[in-house]
Structures are given as C-alpha cells and as structure tokens.
C-alpha cells in the first residue's frame, strides 16, 4: 500500500475527526522522526537533548497543524521547527557545551564516548568538536549542508535566509572548521566539500 502523500497528510492533520487527525499525525511521526532526530542530534549533540527537541517538534506540529498554511512543503515546515527548536535550546543555555573548549574538548569527548554519536573515530570527534564551536545558526547551516547534503534552496526555505547569505555562512563555517581541526592536537586531516559543489 502506498503512503499518503504529504498534501493529503496536511489535510488530514486539519481534520475535525479526532481519529483521522491522530492517524495522520502518527504517519507524519513515522515518516519523518528519524531524519529529524539525526539532524537535531548533530546540532545539539546529546541524545537526551535531541530527544527533548524532537518531542517538542512533534508537539508543535500537533498543536499548530490547523494554522499551517501550506506555503511550504510538510518536510520544510517540520525541519524549520526542528532547527528553530535546536537553536532555541542552544541559545537558552548561558554556558553551552561548546561555549569554551578550555578543557581541551573533554566535556565533548565524555558525551560522544558515552553515547557513541561519532563511533569513536578521532577524525570524526575532531570535526564535531570544531562544528560545536560555531555560532548556533552557523552550526545549523553546516549540519544541513555538510551532513544532510541539503540543497541551498531548501535550506533557504527552512532557515528563512537568502541562498547567497547561506553560501557565505557555510563558506565561513568551513574555513573555521578546517582551521580548528588542523589546530586540534588530537585531530586528523580530513576533506571538507567545496562550498560551490551542488550535492542536491
């Protein structure tokens, strides 16, 4: 049986019938929760935080489905909520996990070692440490482009930022990340994709 397309799911999410609405919501969760979780996880790092953010995302979807105007696709709407929730979590902390790396990244390493986010590969940890030092929105831009391989046009709809500004932000992020990884005493050289490469 083929899955209901997104437009029909949106219509069902707005339905007055509670059973129809709940069934549509469960399909949305089933279809998108894993993808959203991993995007959020790479932004906020901690599994516990990512779980909290994802729960908040779907709570907002449930509560605001009636006001969704359909000006963007369902996927774009969900990702916009997920990125905004991730950024809100990061900004709400006076002292974030990555606000200072005075401990040489030990706090980060404790989390990734205990949760296995980067499979213990030192190059991956060095990369993630560097990304963690980026400002919150730049970290989201890097995550969507580098790890999720998202086209700039789609990122523009999600982040409500022009394609040109996103390309500039990603370029600056890549430059910083490359520099920090090279300076990381325990890091290793790695390849960062060219900003102009279209991976759509």
Q: Beta-strand percentage? A: under 5%
Structural class: mainly alpha
Average pLDDT confidence is: 79
Rg result: 18 Å
Uncertain runs are 94-105, 185-200
Q: Give the number of helices.
A: 9
Order of helices and strands: HHHHHHHHH
Q: What helical percentage do the residues reach?
A: 55-70%
Q: Can you tell me the overall shape?
A: elongated
Between the first and last Cα atoms, what is the distance in angstroms? 28 Å
Number of strands: 0
Largest sheet: none
Write a structural description.
The relative contact order is 0.10. This protein starts with 5 loop residues before the first helix and ends in a 17-residue tail after the last helix. It is mostly helical and 200 residues long. The chain has helices spanning 6-13, 18-44, 47-64, 74-92, 106-115, 122-132, 136-147, 152-159, 163-183. The protein has nine helices and no strands.
How do the helices and strands line up, and which of them pair or pack?
Blueprint lengths: L5 H8 L4 H27 L2 H18 L9 H19 L13 H10 L6 H11 L3 H12 L4 H8 L3 H21 L17
């Amino acid at each position: 049986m083929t899955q209901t397309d997104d437009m029909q799911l949106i219509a069902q999410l707005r339905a007055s019938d509670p059973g129809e609405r709940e069934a549509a919501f469960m399909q949305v969760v089933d279809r998108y929760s894993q993808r959203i979780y991993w995007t959020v996880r790479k932004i906020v790092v901690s599994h516990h935080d990512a779980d909290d953010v994802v729960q908040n995302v779907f709570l907002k979807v449930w509560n605001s489905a009636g006001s969704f105007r359909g000006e963007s696709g369902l996927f774009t709407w969900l990702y916009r909520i997920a990125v905004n929730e991730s950024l809100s979590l990061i900004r709400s902390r006076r002292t974030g996990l990555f606000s200072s790396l005075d401990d040489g990244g030990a706090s980060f390493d404790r989390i990734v070692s205990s949760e296995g986010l980067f499979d213990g590969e030192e190059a991956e940890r060095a990369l993630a440490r560097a990304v963690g030092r980026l400002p919150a929105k730049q970290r989201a831009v890097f995550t969507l482009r580098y790890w999720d391989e998202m086209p700039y046009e789609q990122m523009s709809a999600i982040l409500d930022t022009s394609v040109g500004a996103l390309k500039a932000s990603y370029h600056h992020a890549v430059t910083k990340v490359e520099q920090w990884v090279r300076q990381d005493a325990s890091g290793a050289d790695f390849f960062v994709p060219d900003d102009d490469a279209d991976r759509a």
